């Protein structure tokens, strides 16, 4: 695979809590120059970034980030607001508290609420593999598939571990064929 093909599948990301508008514009410029899939930025920067890049680059933002324990209603509002401000893609963090409690109907409804709020935008669900048991990962695969998300994503990059080959293989084997797997966190090469 050629470098430009790899870059076309990568989200150029800046989620630092102190990210400035100037840094976001520089991130957008780099993403356009290198042909990245999108820029992934904090929700507060979506409107300005969309105005800056127009249709030259897709804008992705995060919902319930990085912990996922916001209420379902808050996540749905945040997602709808991001779409209104110009987000093309949404990366939501699944509710891991509900997952650890075995409240899978709640996990499913949490994802479905964000799916409804994002209209036809790309929806990626981050499940933070490093914090889940294998059985919980399998249940997450079911919920992400049933909710109609476009991707299941391994990690926020803000927790105790990132993507592993084993997790990617497990997710790929257990989500629906229409769901893509996105490896994130700790990838250096």
From TrEMBL:
GO BP, sorted A to Z: carbohydrate catabolic process; deoxyribonucleotide catabolic process
One cellular component term from this protein's GO annotations in UniProt: cytoplasm
Q: Name the EC number(s).
A: 4.1.2.4
Gene3D superfamilies, alphabetically? Aldolase class I
InterPro entries assigned: Aldolase_TIM, DeoC, DeoC/FbaB/LacD_aldolase
Q: Which reaction does it catalyse?
A: 2-deoxy-D-ribose 5-phosphate = D-glyceraldehyde 3-phosphate + acetaldehyde
Task: Please give one Pfam family short name.
Answer: DeoC
Sorted UniProt keywords: Cytoplasm, Lyase, Schiff base
Q: What class of enzyme is it?
A: lyase
Entry's Gene Ontology molecular function annotations: deoxyribose-phosphate aldolase activity
Function comment: Catalyzes a reversible aldol reaction between acetaldehyde and D-glyceraldehyde 3-phosphate to generate 2-deoxy-D-ribose 5-phosphate.
Family, per the entry?
Answer: Belongs to the DeoC/FbaB aldolase family. DeoC type 1 subfamily.
Protein name from the UniProt record: Deoxyribose-phosphate aldolase
The protein's organism comes out as: Candidatus Scatomorpha merdipullorum
- Record lineage: Bacteria, Bacillati, Bacillota, Clostridia, Eubacteriales
Q: Which gene encodes it?
A: deoC
């Amino acid at each position: 695979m050629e470098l430009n093909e790899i870059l076309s599948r990568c989200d150029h990301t800046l989620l630092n809590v102190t990210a400035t508008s100037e840094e976001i514009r520089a991130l957008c410029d780099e993403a356009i120059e290198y042909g990245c899939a999108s820029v992934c930025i904090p929700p507060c920067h979506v409107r300005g970034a969309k105005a800056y890049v127009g249709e030259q680059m897709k804008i992705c933002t995060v919902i319930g980030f990085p912990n996922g324990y916001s209420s379902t209603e808050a996540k749905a509002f945040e997602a709808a607001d991001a779409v209104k401000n110009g987000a093309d893609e949404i990366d939501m963090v699944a509710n891991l508290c509900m997952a650890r409690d075995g409240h899978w109907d709640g996990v499913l409804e949490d994802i479905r609420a964000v799916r409804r709020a994002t209209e036809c935008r790309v929806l990626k669900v981050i499940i933070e593999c490093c914090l889940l048991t294998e059985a919980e990962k399998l249940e997450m695969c079911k919920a992400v598939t049933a909710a109609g998300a476009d991707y299941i994503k391994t990690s926020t990059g803000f927790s105790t571990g990132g993507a592993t080959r084993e997790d990617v293989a497990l997710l790929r084997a257990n989500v629906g064929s229409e769901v893509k797997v996105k490896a994130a966190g700790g990838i250096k090469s």
